[in-house]
Write a structure and sequence with these properties.
Length: 444
């Protein structure tokens, strides 16, 4: 970047979300799975789950969200110097999703970046990497794109209700309205809480209880580290709003309660909770949890609930989960984020986690307006196509049997693909995948 001034206020210039048109009702899945009323809707806190047919895959949904980001924000593909994808949906064990996306940048082959993989954490690492590229001597003045996308599917059983599908793309550059703060915390250890060791299957091996413990342990360590680094002592000092990686809604509530319990124990005169019944208050203790949940309700409603909207409607987007939470927050018409800080917690099993802050500049109203106009999330959700649990299960069975097939042509209705989206046309006898874009025909 010889001759250029050092970039400042690096962060998010624009954002785009894409999710499939098809979904399934969690209440109907409860009946279908015979798990009892409220298991998914109350126990998990989920309402609907985005699901994908055989015409879409990780390459197509990533292509769709990138093209939409460029077109809606009038950005030329030639202005992009880095493109990095975070995903755990691996279509090919050697050829990355990023290389598929280079079809969108013909004539601009000098684009850095690759696919970053670690469960649900890859999208945030791609974000950190892209910001670091702009901060570095290697930066050439162009912009970066970060994609966080996944298709979360599970084998038959209660875990299937924690799936989802979608993609989020960020345009990254200097002088951004939404700026990444320089101080963050990271916590990474070895764990077998969720992993995908079976090459012939998309399905993970999951230790559910251990995974919850790992998540809570990670957020506790990240929170304590960030407070130490920033010289703060409680949530209120760090940010006005919070966004969490959301495997399911109740997980984020538990995570916030863990942070809140820490604040309560460190500031007993402020919160005045009675834990005299135990020498070591632990969030796993149902009695402790009930007290914390009650006392934290107002703070949760004000600081966290707005970011949970899309997660409850789409399910777990894996790498896209935390970015979708941020979009939920920005798109909430009742909230004025200008001049506010957002604390975000990223988590990926295995495990990798980080806690960091974004700052919305006071002059960011145009950015907020544009993001809301480009992402009419409530209208998009309203216009989705509902699948019955029977149809969803049939498609999942077919997806499972077709996973490694060659000479394959998708059969799901093309009507389920939105205008402007990419879709899979076929897979040939060498497992090569071919795509097209659905373009609206002019009305006569």
């Amino acid at each position: 970047m010889s001759g250029m001034a050092r970039p400042a206020d690096i962060g998010i210039l624009a954002a785009e979300i894409y999710f499939p048109k098809t979904y399934v009702e969690q209440s109907e899945l409860e009946s279908f799975d015979n798990v009892g009323k409220g298991k998914y809707t109350l126990g998990l806190g989920q309402l609907r789950m985005s699901c994908i047919g055989d015409r879409e895959d990780i390459n197509s949904i990533s292509s769709t969200v990138v093209v939409n980001l460029l077109e809606k924000n009038h950005v030329s593909p030639r202005d992009i110097g880095r493109l990095e994808i975070g995903t755990e949906t691996i279509q090919d064990k050697a050829k990355s999703t990023k290389t598929f996306l280079m079809n969108l940048f013909k004539g601009n082959e000098g684009i850095e970046g690759i696919t970053t993989i670690n469960a649900c954490y890859g999208g945030i690492q791609a974000f950190f990497n892209t910001v670091a590229w702009i901060e570095s001597r290697a930066w050439d003045g162009r912009l970066g794109i970060v994609v966080a996308a996944d298709i979360a599917v599970y084998e038959r059983g209660p875990a299937r209700a924690t799936g989802g599908a979608g993609a989020v793309a960020f345009l990254i550059g200097p002088n951004a309205p939404l700026v990444l703060a320089p101080i963050r915390s990271t916590y990474m250890v070895h764990a077998y809480d969720f992993y995908k060791p079976i090459p012939q299957s998309e399905y993970p091996v999951v230790d559910g209880h251990h995974s919850i413990d790992c998540y809570i342990d990670a957020i506790h360590n990240c929170y304590e580290s960030l407070k130490q680094k920033t010289g703060t002592t409680k949530i209120e000092e760090l940010a006005e709003y919070l966004c969490f990686h959301a495997p399911f809604y109740k997980m984020t509530r538990r995570a916030f309660n863990k942070m809140f319990l820490t604040d309560m124990l460190n500031h007993p005169k402020v919160y005045k909770a009675d834990f005299s019944f135990t020498q070591n208050p632990n969030i796993k203790d149902p009695k402790v949890y009930e007290i914390v949940n009650r006392l934290s309700q107002e703070a949760w409603n004000r600081k966290c609930e707005p970011a949970t909207f899309l997660g409850k409607q789409l399910g777990n987007l894996y790498c896209g989960s935390l970015p979708a939470s941020l979009i939920s927050l920005i798109c909430d018409p009742t909230i004025d984020l200008k001049g506010k800080r957002v604390l975000l917690f990223a988590y990926g099993s295995g495990l990798a986690s980080s806690m960091f802050t974004l700052y919305m500049r006071p002059d960011a109203q145009n950015f907020i307006n544009q993001l809301r106009a480009n992402n009419p999330i409530r209208d998009l959700l309203q216009n989705r196509i509902k699948l019955t649990p029977d149809e969803y299960t049939r498609r999942m069975d077919k997806r499972e049997s077709d996973y490694v097939k060659t000479n394959y042509t998708p059969r799901d209705p093309l009507d389920e693909i939105p205008e402007g989206a990419f879709y899979l046309v076929k897979t040939d006898n060498k497992w090569r995948r071919f795509y097209a874009r659905k373009i609206a025909r002019p009305k006569l």
